[in-house]
Amino acid sequence: MSHDPRVTPLGQFLRRHSLDELPQLWNVLRGEMSLVGPRPLPLPEVQAIAEGDDRRRLSVKPGITGLWQISGRSDLADFADWVRLDLAYIDQWSLGLDLKILLATIPVALLGKGGK
Length: 116
Prior knowledge:
Blueprint: H1 9-16, H2 24-29, E1 34-36, H3 43-48, E2 63-65, H4 67-70, H5 79-92, H6 95-111
């Protein structure tokens, strides 16, 4: 929902600039997530990709940021595009790609590009 009446102006600001993701750093420190990787999925969506190539995205740790974050975030409305970007990340993974994504995340978060 793009204009949820339950979300306060502060909440909108935190979400737009991805500041609501900061608590996820605890999960990174615990080893449950990485800084860069596919976005974690809710259980119903995990079950929806239970078969086929799309299942590969579940083979790596989820990340706080990734290609989805720097490629439009909420502007990408199609779940297939989200999965496509995650699979591209998995197929092309390198330390250099992770660094590129981390650096590209900074202006996206600061400017709130694609955030809702």
